[in-house]
Amino acid sequence: xxxxxxxxxxxxxxxxxxxxxxxxxxxxxxxxxxxxxxxxxxxxxxxxxxxxxxxxxxxxxxxxxxxxxxxxxxxxxxxxxxxxxxxxxxxxxxxxxxxxxxxxxxxxxxxxxxxxxxxxxxxxxxxxxxxxxxxxxxxxxxxxxxxxxxxxxxxxxxxxxxxxxxxxxxxxxxxxxxxxxxxxxxxxxxxxxxxxxxxxxxxxxxxxxxxxxxxxxxxxxxxxxxxxxxxxxxxxxxxxxxxxxxxxxxxxxxxxxxxxxxxxxxxxxxxxxxxxxxxxxxxxxxxxxxxxxxxxxxxxxxxxxxxxxxxxxx
Length: 314
Description:
Layout: H1 5-18, H2 35-47, H3 53-59, H4 70-79, H5 95-108, H6 113-117, E1 119-128, E2 161-168, E3 173-179, H7 187-205, E4 210-212, H8 217-220, H9 222-230, E5 235-236, H10 248-260, H11 269-281, H12 285-295, H13 302-310
Parallel strand pairs: 1-4, 4-5
Antiparallel strand pairs: 1-2, 2-3
Helix pairs in contact: 3-4, 5-13, 7-9, 12-13
């Protein structure tokens, strides 16, 4: 049994004397809640997962009609296997949204890697000259939290910024297109600067491609939809309020980390555009292939996580 010999001897002696191996009653403070109250606490938190431990402590009286402590509630819940975690923040979905998610997941759930390789993933992203990266750590001693050499100054609003559009396929990247103001991206600008200049020529050279775009206003505008139909661009349908797990999001994170590793931080939008363009052209092809291949892999990110998220709030 891989235990000490004396332990077995004591248990055997206790069984001979008391007909049980349970510990003897010891002096000490008795439990402030009964077993029934413990079951009630667990049941209440199972029925209402957002119920706080402090609220339960105010609603529960102990053996002497005294309010139990919040830590007592946490210990009772922890004993039953419940742990306090941050909740998943999901969108407000109507029955129509849930139905659209379900249909999309059923239609694209059986796609293999070959089919996902024919998809061109695109989206816009916002890059700021001052980025608050949660990966940055500071080595300090206790009590040095607010010391000048331990504080990383950051503009809460991110400073100057620009919008960048880009698209990726299995073997190539398309773009980028830079917008120095979010308001510049309307249907007319999106059609002329993005679709007409980049997407249509690329899809014309590579047949049987499917273009993916989200449900931004510039993408769903009638002017944009009519242009896509007239240009014979096949579009991947995208459900409303879909989980935002486009594989190109990993590429934006890759670019942001490359910017953060620079010795020279961009001071204005022009400098930021130059840096982004340099890093965009330096993206290795195998990285793009990895993103797209993981889209069709059950263990990867991309579409299979998107399919899981499509049914997450059903």
